[in-house]
Design brief:
The complex is a heterodimer of chains A (115) and B (116). With 115 residues, chain A is mostly beta strands. Chain A has a single domain, classed as Immunoglobulin-like, CATH 2.60.40. In chain A, 0% of the residues lie in helices and 59% in strands. Chain A is globular. In chain B, the strands form two sheets. In chain B, strands 2, 4, 5, 6, 9, 10 and 11 form a seven-stranded mixed β-sheet that branches. In chain B, strands 1-3-8-7 form a four-stranded antiparallel β-sheet, with no helix packed on it. Chain B is built from no helices and eleven strands. Chains A and B meet through β5, β9 and β10 of A and β5 and β10 of B.
Chain lengths: 115, 116
């Protein structure tokens, strides 16, 4: 079953603009992760933010986490054509009911950056 | 540095034929290993994960199976493929420290499987 949901499903912006993607989830989490997937390729890990963190930066990426609203956002500043990809949030959920937690991924936001 | 290899990159198989997809990891030991399937325009569905040799966990009932014959080798198999098995199959690994969901996962480049 799905835990995280990204919004919007698709986003098209001009190069140089900022892109913001949102993720909402349903149950309490101890961390949330963002991944990028270029067309036809595997996912690449971008950022992991823990539940006791509110904001995290990595280069042009800024991730926020609001546990009271069960939501996270990914901001890409000064976007480039190479940022064109799908972006997924991933959150832990109980797996197999055996005390194990595994990541569950949303359907992603498809970002298109127009040169 | 660690690398993950998946093959083949693309595969076209007839309905009812067997399947074997292989994934190997280099540069780390005792990793957690994962098989995911991604349908077009959908998120990832976790099929199997493994915390050690011979240890496989699965949640979704299906005609697929997984095996881990060596520490850094993970194999996805089927005896008879169905049309619904079409999709993009991704292998991933993470370090085994702590809970698997607390660690970043590192993905291979996937296998595009088409069933005819």
């Amino acid at each position: 079953s799905q835990q995280g949901e990204e919004d919007p499903q698709a986003l098209s912006i001009q190069e140089g603009e900022n892109a913001t993607m949102n993720c909402s989830y349903k149950t309490s989490i101890n961390n949330l992760q963002w991944y990028r997937q270029n067309s036809g390729r595997g996912l690449v890990h971008l950022i992991l933010i823990r539940s006791n963190e509110r904001e995290k930066h990595s280069g042009r990426l800024r991730v926020t986490l609001d546990t009271s609203k069960k939501s996270s956002s990914l901001l890409i500043t000064a976007s480039r054509a190479a940022d064109t990809a799908s972006y997924f949030c991933a959150t832990p959920r109980s797996f197999s009911g055996a005390g194990s937690y595994q990541l569950t991924f949303g359907k992603g936001t498809k970002l298109s950056v127009i040169p | 540095s660690q690398t993950i290899h998946q093959w083949p990159a693309t595969l076209v198989q007839p309905v009812g034929s067997p399947l074997s997809l292989e994934c190997t990891v280099e540069g780390t030991s005792n990793p957690n290993l994962y098989w995911y399937r991604q349908a077009a325009g959908r998120g990832l569905q976790l099929l199997f994960y493994s915390v050690g040799i011979g240890q496989i966990s699965s949640e979704v009932p299906q005609n697929l199976s997984a095996s881990r014959p060596q520490d850094r080798q993970f194999i996805l198999s089927s005896k008879k493929l169905l049309l619904s098995d079409s999709g993009f199959y991704l292998c991933a690994w993470s370090v085994s420290t702590g809970m698997g969901s607390n660690q970043p996962q590192h993905f291979g480049d996937g296998t595009r499987l088409s069933i005819l």
